[in-house]
Every structure is written in structure tokens, then in C-alpha cells.
């Protein structure tokens, strides 16, 4: 029966590849049995008309496939969805503000030139592209976190009420903050590795846009260290998200990572010129270095003054 | 008694929820002997338990993936069919669920009066 073949095939399209052939074969067999039985009982031919009646009762291919699916089939589940929406709502206005600031800076710098709408349209186009790219990165990051959390929950740890954290739990994490950090790391890693020329000062004139890259080729010598930092930071954030809270090991890892970032900043600051406006940028980096060193000290202080095992910590 | 199918009203949903738990027990008990999907549906139907096919067949796959059923393809009457049977683990679960069912039925029976 052609209709049953088409139906089984359609159900298969909604299923993971490894299940598809098996479920399709079983559905063909079961539905043919059903149609033949009904034909025998009703004294009617086992044709497509009867098959259509059986299939209508069986349900739409999408509904049937959902019942066969071994695990939830969504990229971002209900727990992370609110954080995803918040992240998008934060990211889009920030991008828009950056692009508006760039256009405004171009108008201010070239105030004497005749007015033109061309820079505005160019900036709008760039903004839309950039928004789509960032939306893609953010969706991928959230999907990755969703999978990590789901796999951990599937492992099925026994729930212990005595492990409930206190109301003012210093180890509680913000899902939004952690995932947004993952997105920023992924976006920066892509930018610095594949589009280093885009790390630049942009000046929009009426006729065209001028781009002044900030990084000189010499900056590449730091990229292995910076990439290592990004990988470690990404893994650490993912690990904290999987746990659902900070633990003593992840706090030590945070301290180690902060020391590492201070070391990288120190190497860049004392190293040879690698930026277009080297003196200016290194003054900013020196402030980052001071901030990073202070943060490392604070993290270490908190680690040392806390009890080694909190009463509510998981065994 | 019908299990599965399109449910719309809150009353239907609650009724479906009440019956759904019994379905696993019924399937495990009937699959002490090997059956294929449609023959199992008929068997249950003959005993008064009408199950929507779209509910029964995915349930068989789920129970198999949980190790409660074992299955094998065989060609019969010129058609390949997948036969299911309760595994040792499935039979053990059926006994435990049956005991729970009897206890629950007794309690609910007393409550209803």
C-alpha cells in the first residue's frame, strides 16, 4: 500500500537516523496488519481508502514520531529559554548602541561634509549581519549548555535533601551570566582568530568607511596563550553550569584562571609594541592587569577563609 | 476501556492519566508469551482493554530500550514482523507492579466504598 509506505517514510523523517529504518519497517508491518484486519472484518477492499482511515486514527506523522523519539528534540529547553531570551534582549541593544556610536562618531569627525544617508544604510546593513552572526553564536552556546545539563541529569544522581543549599548560597550561579560569558568568549575567539582586522577603529565618512586595525602582526605571538585562556574559561564555565553551582574545585580553577589572565596581561604590557596605538592601549591594559591581580587576591582570600567542606555541599 | 487516542477535555485528560499507569502492567503481563504489535493489541482488546495503536507501539519500543522487553524480527506469512517478549527484568517488574496494583486497588476500593 503506497499510502502506508509514504506515511512510514514521513514518520522516519522526524526521527534520529539510527532509529529511522527500524521504526519505518515496523510501522509498515503494523499498519498493514491493521488495515488487512479491518478490511476482513468490514468486508471492504484493503486499499488506500481504508489505509487513510487507519492512518487518521493513528495520528499525524509528526505526533507519532514524537512518541517514538527517545529524548526531547529541542535545542534550548524550558529551563534555559528565559535566559536565552534575556541574552538576546541584552545583546541586540548593545550591538545597536555600538553601531549608532560609530555612525555618530563619523558624523562628528566629518561635520563639514555634505549630509548623506549612505553611512546610515551601510551601518544598518552591518548591524543586521552582525546581529545574525551573534544570534547564531549565542544559540549554539545555549544548545551546547542544554546538552551538557541534560546529559548530567540523565546520569541520575540520587537527590539528597540535606544537600539543599542555604537561602543565601554564595555558590549559587546565574545561568544567564554564565551562558552570556560563554557567548562572549566564543564571539571574541572567532573575532581574534579569524577576523583580526575587524578589531579596529571604524570611521564612517559620507562616501565610504575607513578602518584602522588595532592589532599589528606582532600580536599573533600572544594568540596561543590567549586561545588557551579562552578554552580554559569556556570549559570552566561549562563545568560550573553542569554542576549547577560553584564548588571548591571550580573556585580553585577560577583563581588559577585569574592568575593566568594576569600573567598574559603582564606579558603583553611589558612586551614589544603590538598595537596601532600601543601606548594608549597599554595604559588601558595596565588597569585591566591591576583589576585582574586584585580579583585573584580576593578569590584566594575567599578560598582560604572558607571551610574546606560546606555542610550543604554535595559529597 | 480505551487507552490513548485524541483527548481534549480536562476530564478526558485526567481519565487518561489514571489509566496510563495500568498500560505498562497490562503489556508486560501479556508479553510473558511472544507477540507482535498488532497481535498484542488484539489480545488486549479481546480481554476488554482497547489501546490506541499510536500509544501502544511507541510504548513497546520504550520498554525495549529500558531492557524490559526483548525483540526479534521474523518473517511470517511473507511479512516481516517484530516480535516482543518480556525479558527477565520485565517479568520481575510485572510481578512488582502487579503487587502494587492489587494493593492500590484494595485501598482505592475501600476509599470509594
What does this structure look like?
The complex is a heterodimer of chains A (315) and B (113). A two-stranded antiparallel sheet of chain A has the order 1-2. Chain A folds into 2 domains: 67 residues, no CATH class; 225 residues, no CATH class. Helix content of chain A is 68%, strand content 3%. Chain A is mainly alpha-helical. The longest helix of chain B has 25 residues. The radius of gyration of chain B is 15 Å and the shape is globular. Chain B starts with a strand and ends with a helix. The chains are: A mainly alpha (315), B alpha+beta (113).
Can you lay out the helices and strands and say which pair or pack?
The complex is a heterodimer of chains A (315) and B (113).
Chain A: H1 2-13, H2 17-42, H3 48-58, H4 61-68, H5 81-109, H6 118-154, H7 175-194, E1 200-204, E2 209-213, H8 223-243, H9 248-270, H10 278-305
Chain B: E1 2-3, H1 10-30, E2 35-36, H2 37-46, E3 50-51, H3 53-65, E4 69-76, E5 79-86, H4 88-112
Parallel strand pairs in B: 1-3
Antiparallel strand pairs in B: 2-5, 4-5
Helix pairs in contact in B: 1-4
Number of strands of chain B: 5
Q: If you average the pLDDT of chain A, what whole number results? A: 82
Number of helices of chain A: 10
Helix-residue proportion of chain B: 55-70%
Query: What form of chain B results from the Cα inertia axes?
Result: globular
Give a quick account of the main beta sheet of chain A: strands, pairing sense, barrel closure.
2 strands, antiparallel
Beta percentage of chain A is under 5%
The number of distinct helices of chain B, counting runs of at least 4 residues, comes to: 4
Largest sheet of chain B: 3 strands, antiparallel
Biggest interface, residues from each chain: A-B, 18 and 19 residues
Count of the domains of chain A: 2
Q: What structural class do helix, strand and pairing data of chain A support?
A: mainly alpha
Approximately how much beta-strand content do the residues of chain B carry?
Answer: 15-25%
Cα shape of chain A: extended
Number of strands of chain A: 2
Order of strands, main sheet of chain B, comes to 2-5-4
Secondary-structure element series of chain A = HHHHHHHEEHHH
